[in-house]
């Protein structure tokens, strides 16, 4: 909150400074203008904001509280006889130039119906029922007697029953929008169709619209019972000159009309001190009197020629139009600055989102690379452990291998095996040896031939998998290492075998 150089806010209490800051944030008003309205509102931010937007009119409650809290001090006056003569002979001061009257925001108030106490309602219930029955009976009798010829009616009725005319109290109260539609319909029924564009809402809505869009609000109040109403409506208000002036978009005029028989228009006439009909008032924002204060800049009462009516309105518009143009330019600057800040914030947010997205993608790539590296390392470690277990198993299995039987032993199986390296090996096996013994011999052939069998423990939790298969040549038969039966049962007393690598099938 920027402080004004001529206003010293250091004298305010902390609560008053906080209230001033809240009020300035909401209204964007200068400090020199905000402090007086806060003082008149007893430093109540809500009351001050309401006065700011609705017009700083007199607040009886706040004034009474202020008077009670701070009673006016009567300054003691000391003067001698000479000063008394001089004071009485001094000329009276001229009043200051008249300022525009404030234009308060008026909302029609619904009548308050007070409920009768229950005990009193019970006591007066018989009288109420009797009154309703009697009034119903009399209305029925009068209704049927209205069709009787005048000469045959009872003398008590006189010349006849006259219909009651609608007045302000007998007119049904509607919502502001419905009241405006009724006024427009009645105006067209009375004076014919016209090109006047009356506002389709209540007075408060029209005032708010004029204040928001920086336009002029022309209020026209008419009284059907006034003698000059018809001539004013037909000759002045509906004249082409006035209609064209009001409908001219360059004048920025919002037209609101009301019939004082309606509650809203009647309240407007009271608040705006309307003493003569037809009544017209031009309302506008007066920046010099307050940053957001609606004021009455022109009053027109009674009938007048169309030329004079337009001239008076044109004069008031020309007087305050430059001020409104300045406020519009200021608002446009604020709007452009706000849009620029919004665009900058959006660009910053987009850039920040893009940076966050790039950082997220980078983290994902790094995480994927780290996961791949960790998986490769774990696979390598698993392969190394498996290879160690394989070597340990080969040493253990080579130590478990049975020695080759003697050549003189007739109960043997003689096999010629072609190894994977292409080497041809001929060896005798015991007839009770299994096919797994043959596979173990081929797997551990290098250790068995070198005679370097070491006594190694069997690795726990390791299941050896043979990466080759043994098959017969003619006829071709593939032998399973885990098949049942002995070598003699599977191969016979002799045979030619070949060792083939197992080729893993791939998608290709």
UniProtKB/TrEMBL annotation:
PROSITE patterns assigned: UBX
Keyword Coiled coil carried by entry: yes
Taxonomic source organism: Zalerion maritima
SUPFAM superfamilies according to UniProt: Thioredoxin-like (SSF52833), UBA-like (SSF46934), Ubiquitin-like (SSF54236)
Alphabetized Pfam families for the sequence: UBA_4, UBX
Keyword Coiled coil attributed: yes
CDD domains: UBA_TAP-C_like (cd14273), UBX (cd01767)
Protein name: UBX domain-containing protein
InterPro entries: Thioredoxin-like_sf (IPR036249), UAS (IPR006577), UBA-like_sf (IPR009060), Ubiquitin-like_domsf (IPR029071), UBX_dom (IPR001012), UBX_domain-protein (IPR050730)
UniProt region (Disordered), positions on chain: 86-105, 341-409
Keyword annotations of the record: Coiled coil
Low complexity bias locations: 89-100
Alphabetized Gene3D superfamilies for the sequence: DNA helicase RuvA subunit, C-terminal domain (1.10.8.10), Glutaredoxin (3.40.30.10), Phosphatidylinositol 3-kinase Catalytic Subunit, Chain A, domain 1 (3.10.20.90)
A GO term for molecular function: ubiquitin binding
Any single Gene Ontology cellular-component annotation: endoplasmic reticulum
């Amino acid at each position: 909150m920027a402080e004004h150089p001529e206003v010293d806010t250091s004298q305010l209490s902390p609560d008053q400074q906080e209230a001033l800051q809240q009020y300035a944030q909401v209204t964007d008003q200068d400090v020199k203008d905000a402090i007086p309205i806060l003082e008149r509102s007893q430093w109540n931010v809500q009351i001050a904001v309401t006065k700011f937007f609705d017009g700083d009119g007199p607040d009886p409650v706040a004034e009474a509280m202020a008077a009670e809290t701070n009673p006016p001090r009567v300054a003691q006056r000391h003067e001698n006889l000479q000063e008394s003569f001089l004071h009485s002979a001094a000329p009276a001061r001229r009043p200051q130039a008249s300022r525009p009257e404030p234009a308060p925001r008026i909302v029609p108030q619904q009548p308050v119906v007070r409920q009768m106490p229950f005990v009193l309602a019970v006591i007066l219930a018989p009288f109420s029922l009797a009154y309703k029955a009697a009034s119903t009976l009399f209305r029925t009798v009068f209704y049927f007697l209205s069709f009787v010829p005048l000469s045959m009616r009872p003398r008590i009725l006189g010349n006849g029953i006259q219909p009651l005319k609608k007045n302000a109290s007998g007119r049904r109260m509607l919502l502001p929008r419905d009241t405006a539609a009724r006024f427009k319909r009645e105006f067209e029924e009375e004076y014919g169709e016209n090109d006047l564009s009356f506002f389709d809402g209540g007075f408060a809505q029209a005032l708010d619209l004029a204040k928001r869009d920086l336009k002029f609000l022309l209020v026209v109040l008419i009284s059907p019972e006034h003698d000059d109403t018809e001539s004013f409506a037909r000759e002045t208000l509906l004249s082409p000159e006035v209609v064209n002036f009001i409908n001219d978009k360059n004048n920025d005029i919002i037209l609101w009309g009301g019939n004082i028989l309606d509650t809203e228009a009647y309240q407007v006439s009271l608040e705006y001190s309307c003493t003569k009909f037809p009544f017209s008032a031009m309302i506008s924002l007066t920046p010099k009197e307050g940053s957001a204060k609606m004021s009455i800049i022109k009053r027109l009462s009674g009938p007048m020629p169309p030329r004079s009516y337009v001239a008076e309105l044109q004069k008031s518009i020309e007087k305050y139009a430059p001020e409104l143009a300045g406020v519009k330019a200021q608002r446009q600057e604020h709007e452009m600055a706000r849009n620029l800040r919004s665009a900058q914030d959006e660009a910053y947010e987009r850039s920040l989102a893009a940076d966050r997205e790039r950082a997220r993608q980078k983290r994902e790539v790094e995480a994927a690379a780290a996961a791949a590296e960790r998986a490769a390392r774990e696979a390598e470690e698993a392969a190394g452990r498996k290879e160690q277990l394989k070597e340990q198993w080969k040493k253990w299995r080579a130590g478990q291998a049975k020695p080759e039987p003697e050549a003189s032993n007739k109960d043997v199986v003689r096999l010629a095996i072609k190894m994977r390296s292409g080497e041809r090996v001929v060896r005798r096996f015991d007839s009770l040896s299994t096919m797994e013994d043959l596979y173990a011999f081929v797997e551990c052939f290098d250790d068995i031939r070198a005679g370097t069998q070491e006594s190694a423990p069997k690795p726990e939790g390791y299941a050896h998998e043979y990466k080759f298969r043994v098959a017969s040549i003619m006829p071709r038969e593939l032998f399973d290492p885990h098949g049942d039966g002995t070598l003699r049962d599977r191969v016979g007393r002799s045979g030619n075998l070949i060792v083939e690598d197992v080729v893993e099938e791939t998608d290709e």
